[in-house]
Amino acid sequence: MRLYDVNNSKEVAHMTKYREILRLASLGLSQQSIADSSGVSKKTVNRVLIRARELNIFWPLGLFFTFTR
Each residue of 18-46: pLDDT tens digit? Predict the structure, then answer.
C-alpha cells in the first residue's frame, strides 16, 4: 500500500476498496464474501490482508490513513 493522490479518482477508488476490505475483514466476513462485496478477486483480498498485516494496519484506521476531499 502507498499514499494516494486524492486528485486521481482511480487511486481514490482503489484506496476505498482497501479500506472496505479491511472494514469487512474486521467484521469477520470470509475472504470470498469480501471479494464478492467489494467487486475484487479473492486473491486481491488475500493480498491486501496479508500486506496490511505486514504493515500492522488494522481497522479502524488511524488518523494517518483518514482523508477528506
Answer: 899 999 999 999 999 999 999 999 999 99
Under 8 Å between Cβ of 29 and 37: yes
The total of structural domains in the chain comes to: 1
- pTM for the complete prediction? 0.71
Nine-digit cell string for 36: 464478492
Grid coordinates in use for 2? Answer: 502507498
The reply to whether 2 falls in a domain is no
Hunting for cell 502507498 — which residue is that?
2
Any domain includes 22: yes
How far apart CA 23 and CA 10 sit, in angstroms, is 20
**Enclosing domain of residue 57:** 9-63
